[in-house]
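Sequence in, structure out. First:
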Amino acid sequence: MTVDKPSFHSSASDTDTAKAKEQKSWVPIILIGIAIAYLALVQYIPAINVFFQAFSKGFGPFLSNLTRPDFLSAVWLTFLLALISLPVNTVFGLCAAWAIARHKFPGRAIVLSIIDLPFSISPVVAGLMLVLLYGRQGWFGPWLQAHDIKIIFAFPGMLLATAFVSMPFVAREVIPVLEEFGKDQEEAARTLGAKDWQIFWRVTLPSIRWGLLYGLILTNARAMGEFGAVSVVSGNIAGQTQSLPLFVEDAYKQYETEAAFSAAVLLALLAVVTLVLKEILERKTSIKDVE
């Protein structure tokens, strides 16, 4: 009768495998901890501090800061900038997306690069470009001055800056949707006698609605929260050319910290609403893709 001898090599191998699995199980935990710590330092703690500073003296002072004439003027101006730039960029984005997704033409890559230009350059540089074009000493400055048209340090310059920085979002969200949707249904509708506007409203628009809404949300958020480009071309005159982000900076520089943080809370709530809407659209899009 023979007795099997224990295999020491096999037991050692099993021990090494168990240790390796244990080490691997700790890797995701460490990576998640690093990510949470980083987000806490750059996002969570500063955001909590904004709300703490805004409500540090109670809810009454917070409300009084929100009823100041210069604050209301900044809110109205910010709303007006978004109200005008949003439909302008929507029309531009739809036209650009249609031309790029439905046609192959020379210079298509250059057009895409131009659309992405606000992503690649600093907003301050964008504001400086507008000053060099429409300022008193700019290319069009003498003509504008001769006709008593004021662009820089006035609302038109702020609108141009806002429209520029928020330009790419609609086009960039609609282009991939159009490319994935294809031309088959549009060509079928055209064969049946539908006109171009009928094809757009009844075939194309329903297919791109989620991408379009996603682009609109991002465009609106960027328009309302823009600081760099608008600060260069606005002059930051309280009650006249001061948007809400500029009001936050100016109030903080004037040691009116409660007013600055109260306005910052409003901008933070705008960001939260944007994130919620973004998440809803992403879920609806994913459900649609599954179906």
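Second:
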Amino acid sequence: MRARLGRIAPPLLLLPLSACSHMELLNPKGSIGEQEKDLILIASGLMLLVVIPVMVLTLVFAWRYRAGNTKATYSPTWAHSTKIEVVVWSIPCVIVAILAVLIWRTTHALDPYRPLESQVKPVNVEVVALDWKWLFIYPDYGIATVNQLTVPVGAPINFRLTSASMMNSFFIPQLGSQIYAMAGMQTKLHLIADEPGTYAGRSAAFSGPGFSDMQFNAVAVPHDEFDAWVKRARSAPAPLVLDEAAYRDLEQPSFDTPSAVYARVSPGLFDSIVDRFMVGRMPALALEGGICTPDGLALQRIY
């Protein structure tokens, strides 16, 4: 009987984690995501070292010192115990010290602005959060997409991010870190996909009535398929061109926007989107869009 329980117990202990098997954060497909998963599990385990004993001891004390237990020691004048004080203070201090060292190291190792070390040439992607869709510009290839991100497996992806209006949060849970995209500012993020697949991307910050539509697919494919995809995008029979006029149309708020591929993109479009909010650097996009006043004051769009 004891041997039988020994075989059954380990699977039973894993049952609570089986409900998490579909969780994207615990099923990473990139090195950044793997490190963040380890950090979550280690930090959770350290905190459970305090939580679980407290919960168990609460039940033990309630049972042991119940009114009907006349065998329990009754000490109405008890006020201090050095042993208890040592346990109560030393264990949390050790856990906090371990967490402090862990957080210090991972904060630097997982800095979203830190480029990933790799022998493979990185792919640069410029991301613009629109209302309510995502624009991805590939400056090295002169193409762009809407609501679909295609990247090669094993190549670092260097993101530059901004927003055309309100703040958004760019997040691909299975690949790793989320980071904010803000109007008039530029943030950076470095990720990598280690396995082919389609991974869900989304906005992790509420940005208005179309927030639920701000989803996209991050498609990781082998290098030869990525090169073929770029070639097809450039040679589309009826190519879409993302110039300033096309961008103004795309920038208008829309719901449930279908994915699209632009065969050509105006050079410097991403920088002009960022600079439109800068005093003294207002290109045509800003002047005609009514974003900034002559005094350089940013105005909130009202849709």
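Remark: The CA atoms of residues 85 and 91 lie 10 Å apart.
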